């Protein structure tokens, strides 16, 4: 029997907990605040940002969306980030990715106060994750959401083999770090990897984040493996599909995420969770 990991349902459960935490803070006169900066008119980004705003508002988080024209300068963008850094009502700041060409995304992310870096993309927080430093700091939401999915399966991860296909800054690299921190033996594959199938067939946990439609097929998966599909691709008919051939892999996997309704909803739920984390952590610091 294969388990379908229902990201929508799990996201609902995470969101319900977040809503309770927001209510408890609000009772103390504190409202978590999230500032989302979006630059230009990328349609997909506009939809993701609208969904973030809607969800934050539903949960009682004070959500501010700052829409800027593609012509905004690097210096203007930095000044806007700095203003949110200085605003005590804002606990989480994020810049929707990708930015239009000409803007240096990394330089802008580096100006976000690491304590307000709700995406976990600031180099200080990335470094903390990779060094597995103790303490409270934000991490990238998609892989954190995937760790929540793995937790929900009550697996024994220690010593098992994980393969992450894709080495992006947002997903592949932080995912690998989180799996190493969970005591798994981790390999990261990418576009130059030779004999990909040989590697993926060793995985007890296989995370695929490449943007290549149906890259992973039935024979690339070890029987019983946990298969996490981060892909959001369009097939030849324009239908949303993943990096994994779900129908082919389904009854070979032990558990598998669907697309849509798998990792995507967990990314937004984790973002909300992390906004409230940052708010609570800032309060604890303030009370010390
Ligand atoms: N600053 C950031 N930029 C981007 C991030 C991010 O975490 N921070 N991630 C992605 C976009 N993204 C959130 O920003 C995101 C993408 C997709 C989904 C989602 O729920 N997908 C649905 C399907 C949606 C559809 O039908 O198109 C699903 O998988 O079920 C959530 C968040 C890049 N940029
Ligand atoms: Mg999905």
TrEMBL record:
NADP(+) binds at residues 166-168. Its EC number is 1.5.1.5, 3.5.4.9. It comes from the Bacteria. PROSITE patterns: THF_DHG_CYH_2 (PS00767). Transmembrane segments: none annotated. InterPro entries: Aminoacid_DH-like_N_sf, NAD(P)-bd_dom_sf, THF_DH/CycHdrlase, THF_DH/CycHdrlase_cat_dom, THF_DH/CycHdrlase_CS, THF_DH/CycHdrlase_NAD-bd_dom. Keywords: Amino-acid biosynthesis, Histidine biosynthesis, Hydrolase, Methionine biosynthesis, Multifunctional enzyme, NADP, One-carbon metabolism, Oxidoreductase, Purine biosynthesis. Pathway: One-carbon metabolism; tetrahydrofolate interconversion. Residues 140-280 form the Tetrahydrofolate dehydrogenase/cyclohydrolase NAD(P)-binding domain. One of its GO terms (biological process) is methionine biosynthetic process. It catalyses: (6R)-5,10-methylene-5,6,7,8-tetrahydrofolate + NADP(+) = (6R)-5,10-methenyltetrahydrofolate + NADPH; (6R)-5,10-methenyltetrahydrofolate + H2O = (6R)-10-formyltetrahydrofolate + H(+). One of its GO terms (molecular function) is methylenetetrahydrofolate dehydrogenase (NADP+) activity. Residues 5-119 form the Tetrahydrofolate dehydrogenase/cyclohydrolase catalytic domain. Gene3D superfamilies: Leucine Dehydrogenase, chain A, domain 1 (3.40.50.10860), NAD(P)-binding Rossmann-like Domain (3.40.50.720). One of its GO terms (cellular component) is cytosol. Homodimer. Belongs to the tetrahydrofolate dehydrogenase/cyclohydrolase family. HAMAP family: THF_DHG_CYH. Catalyzes the oxidation of 5,10-methylenetetrahydrofolate to 5,10-methenyltetrahydrofolate and then the hydrolysis of 5,10-methenyltetrahydrofolate to 10-formyltetrahydrofolate. This is Bifunctional protein FolD. The gene is folD.
């Amino acid at each position: 029997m294969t388990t379908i990991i229902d990201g929508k349902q799990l996201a609902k459960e995470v969101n319900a907990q977040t809503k309770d935490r927001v209510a408890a803070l609000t009772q103390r006169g504190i409202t978590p605040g999230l500032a989302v900066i979006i630059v230009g008119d990328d349609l997909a980004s506009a939809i993701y940002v609208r969904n973030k705003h809607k969800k934050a508002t539903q949960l009682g988080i004070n959500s501010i969306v700052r829409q800027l024209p593609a012509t905004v300068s690097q210096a203007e963008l930095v000044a806007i980030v700095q203003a949110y850094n200085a605003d005590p009502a804002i606990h989480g700041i994020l810049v929707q990715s990708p930015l239009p060409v000409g803007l240096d995304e990394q330089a802008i992310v580096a100006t976000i106060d690491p304590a307000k870096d709700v995406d976990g993309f600031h180099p200080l927080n990335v470094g903390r994750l990779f060094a597995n430093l103790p303490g409270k700091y934000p991490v990238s939401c998609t892989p954190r959401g995937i760790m929540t999915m793995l937790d929900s399966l009550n697996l024994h991860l220690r010593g098992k083999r994980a393969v992450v296909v894709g080495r992006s800054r947002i997903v592949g690299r932080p995912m690998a770090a989180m799996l190493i921190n969970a005591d798994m033996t981790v390999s990261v594959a990418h576009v130059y990897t030779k004999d990909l199938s040989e590697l993926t067939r060793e995985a007890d946990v296989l995370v695929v984040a490449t943007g290549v439609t149906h890259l992973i097929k039935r024979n690339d998966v070890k029987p019983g493996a946990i298969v996490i599909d981060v892909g959001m691709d369009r097939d030849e008919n324009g239908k949303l599909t993943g990096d994994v051939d779900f129908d082919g892999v389904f009854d070979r996997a032990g558990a598998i995420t669907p697309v849509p309704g798998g990792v995507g909803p967990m990314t937004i739920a984790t973002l909300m969770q992390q906004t409230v984390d940052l708010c609570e952590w800032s309060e604890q610091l303030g009370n010390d």
